[in-house]
């Protein structure tokens, strides 16, 4: 596996040939911003609801081998080590949804207030072992 690094820090892509791929969010700069004193008296305390959005592209060249919520069972997803077992789609979209684990939808952050998303992509079509399956995650949102 590998740590994904890109100039869009909440974008992530992986294929079935990559093994485990991971991204940590919010990144250090975002954490620093969220923890700044504000005019409100609240502090950064996420409720642990994680929304994931896939890249929404309907062009044929981008949809071949594409894994999204419609074939989510082809992904092995972990959030801070906890296995993601399902999703709750947002109304009106097939590309964004909240992640679920065995005991609910709230995920605990680590001691720094961050989450590590690890993804391992499975083979989309078992009859085509040489084909490439891919996932492209556009956004990760913490509520």
- From the helix content, strand content and strand pairing, which structural class follows? mainly beta
Task: Output mean pLDDT.
Answer: 84
Number of helices: 2
Helix content: under 10%
Report the C-alpha radius of gyration, rounded.
16 Å
Largest sheet: 9 strands, mixed
Which geometry do the CA atoms define?
elongated
* H/E series: EEEHEHEEEEE
Extended strand count? 9
Strand order of the largest sheet: 1-3-8-5-6-7-4-9-2
What is the CA–CA distance across the termini? 28 Å
Low-confidence stretches: none
Strand fraction equals: 35-45%
Primary descriptors:
143 residues; mainly beta; 9-stranded mixed sheet; 2 helices
What does this structure look like?
The protein is mainly beta and 143 residues long. It is built from 2 helices and 9 strands. Strand 6 (82-89) and strand 7 (96-101) form a beta hairpin.
Element layout with pairings:
Blueprint: E1 2-3, E2 12-15, E3 20-25, H1 28-34, E4 50-54, H2 60-63, E5 75-79, E6 82-89, E7 96-101, E8 115-121, E9 134-142
Describe the structure in brief:
The protein is mainly β.
């Amino acid at each position: 596996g590998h740590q994904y690094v890109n100039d869009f820090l909440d974008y992530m892509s992986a294929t079935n040939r990559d093994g485990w791929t991971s991204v940590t969010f919010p990144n250090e700069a975002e954490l620093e911003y969220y923890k700044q004193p504000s005019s409100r008296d609240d502090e950064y305390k996420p409720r642990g609801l994680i929304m994931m959005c896939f890249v929404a592209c309907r062009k044929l060249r981008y949809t071949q081998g594409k894994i999204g919520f419609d074939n989510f069972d082809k992904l092995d997803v972990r959030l801070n080590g906890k296995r993601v077992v399902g999703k709750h789609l947002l109304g009106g979209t097939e590309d964004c949804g909240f992640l679920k684990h065995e005991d609910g939808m709230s995920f605990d952050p680590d001691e720094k207030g961050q989450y590590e998303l690890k993804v391992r992509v499975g083979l989309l079509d078992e009859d085509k072992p040489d084909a490439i399956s891919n996932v492209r995650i556009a956004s990760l949102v913490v509520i």
